[in-house]
Amino acid sequence: MTVKQYIELFKPRIALMIALTAITGYGAVADKVDLGALGLLTLAMVLGSAASAVFNHVWDRDIDRLMRRTSKRPMATGDGTPKVGFLMAAVLMVAGMAVAHQAFNWVVALHLFLGGFVYVAIYTVWLKRRHWTNIILGGAAGSFAILAGAAAVNQTEWLLPMVLALVLFLWTPSHFWALAILLTDDYRKAGVPMLPVVVGEQQTAYWILANSIALVGSSLLPWSMGLLGPLYGGVAIVMGLALLAFNFKLAMTPTRFWAGWNFAASMPYLLILFVGVFLDKHW
Hints:
With 283 residues, the chain is mainly alpha-helical.
């Protein structure tokens, strides 16, 4: 395998998102930011995320071959072997947990493991090929990164991290269902029961809008509960209205063009919301 193929196995964009999520949890609790601690937290999260990604590549290699988007993945093409992949996943997870435990505490390591367990066992192995709720329950994997980041600072301060974990939990279906509309043909061909395959694009658009209403409502909780201030509240309101506008347009015009815009809009929504957490807490 080439270096590029190894990097592809690690799903670096997802690893970066998991690291940023953990950093948000850290920033939500910390009174002062330690850049060295953030570096170690990032390393632990990237290793854990990469472990889950490699396992996903190995386990899904058969259906990846059937989908245009994933047919060139190393495990799907046979360039990588399952035995090496499983070993690599185990080593990466152990390394990530070791960094988390040594640099911080066992609670951080536990949250790192639980995030990987949900993604691997609940989403990839159990639900992905069986039921359309796969991404709802599987989406909880990312929420553990917020809790890990918070636990790196204070293991007992839980309210704000839990609310932010809820926000991430509700963000995932809206984000992924929009992508699933774009990939409906691929998922249908592979026999994966993603929501658009099961109920169609129109109903999926309605589900995205309903879920995003809950998402935006949850995003306002840190402000309404007094856990964060008006700067965060303003960011949450503006970004929430923008996201709902895209969702409403998709519900009225359930085309793949607007699904693409919804998928694209969901990413800066979460990023700017998390930046709002940091600015409100530390600026």
